[in-house]
Design brief:
This protein has a single domain, classed as CNF1/YfiH-like putative cysteine hydrolases (4-Layer Sandwich). About 25% of the residues lie in helices and about 25% in strands. The protein has six helices and 13 strands. Strand 1 and strand 2 form a beta hairpin. The longest helix is centred in the N-terminal third of the chain and has 19 residues. The radius of gyration is 17 Å and the shape is globular. It starts with about 20 loop residues before the first strand and ends with a strand.
């Protein structure tokens, strides 16, 4: 962990049948966070098996069977994440568009279009979906405010993570903690030289080079720098989605890539 604040450290699971839903889980006070892997679900074919893409999107597949599988996968993950007891939890997601719009939501909210969700409502799970972009989960356990953020290259440049931090503070959060989940690493994310120059002009820490010596961007490093500049304590739970076949990757799989998810809530 880097940054201010105390934290007992992440809970990392060994690869067992009982833990194949999650690449990473952690808790801090009443807050739980997790990032999924691609195992333990009901999807088939190239989306096997825990595809959590937005129903109706290309990443959810083109068949009714795969779209139904995605819905079941969300239910499976939500139940496992929240302990599986009591009524099904409310899961709030968003139509992600690579921007910087932040929405403060409740369980009753319609699905918003944007790239960050904030809630102060206990018992409501926030979900962000990625397949190379950076998923960021944020929380102030004492204030009971949490957020889920989708930070791709355009979102990083647009400042979606600082915008989410500002929105959380506007509703009473102060001592913030963040978890940065699996995403494409800087050694693998090759981009044109001009794109690297434009992005790193805004976020210098994102400047990178691939392992084979070509221009690249390290979006994770850029996001962590933005969090540090905002005074947010950060746990780096990242793994490279291109290198790790236990994760979905659009760059590795193309349109056949499913989506993994980051989840956060305040226990009711």
């Amino acid at each position: 962990m880097t940054g201010p604040g105390d934290h007992p450290g992440p809970v990392r699971f060994n690869r067992t049948e009982e833990s194949r839903l999650f690449a990473f889980q952690d808790s801090l006070g009443p807050v739980d966070v997790a990032f999924t892997d691609r195992h333990g679900g009901t999807s088939g074919g190239p989306f096997a098996s825990l595809n959590l893409a937005e129903p109706g999107s290309d990443a959810a597949g083109s068949t009714d069977e795969e779209r139904d599988a995605v819905r079941r996968n969300v239910e499976i993950v939500a139940a496992a994440f929240t302990g599986g007891s009591g009524p099904a939890p409310s899961v709030v997601r968003m139509r992600q568009v690579h921007g910087a719009a932040v929405h403060v939501v409740t369980a009753a909210s319609a699905i918003p279009t944007g790239d960050a969700l904030v809630t102060g409502e206990p018992g409501t799970v926030l979900m962000v979906r990625v397949a190379d972009c950076v998923p960021v989960l944020l929380a102030d356990p004492k204030a009971g405010v949490v957020a889920a953020v989708h930070a791709g290259r355009p979102g990083m440049v647009a400042g979606v993570v600082p915008a989410a931090v500002a929105a959380m503070r506007s509703v009473g959060a102060s001592a913030l903690h963040a978890w940065v989940g699996p995403h494409v690493c800087g050694a693998c994310y090759e981009v044109p030289e001009q794109m690297r120059a434009e992005a790193s002009a805004v976020v210098p820490e994102a400047y990178a080079e691939t392992s084979w010596g070509t221009p690249a961007l390290d979006i994770g490093a850029g996001v962590r720098a933005q969090l540090a500049a905002a005074g947010v304590a950060t746990v780096d739970a990242s793994r490279c989605t291109i290198e790790d076949e236990d994760l979905f990757s659009y760059r590795r799989q193309g349109k056949a890539s499913g989506r993994l998810a980051g989840l956060v809530w305040v226990r009711p």
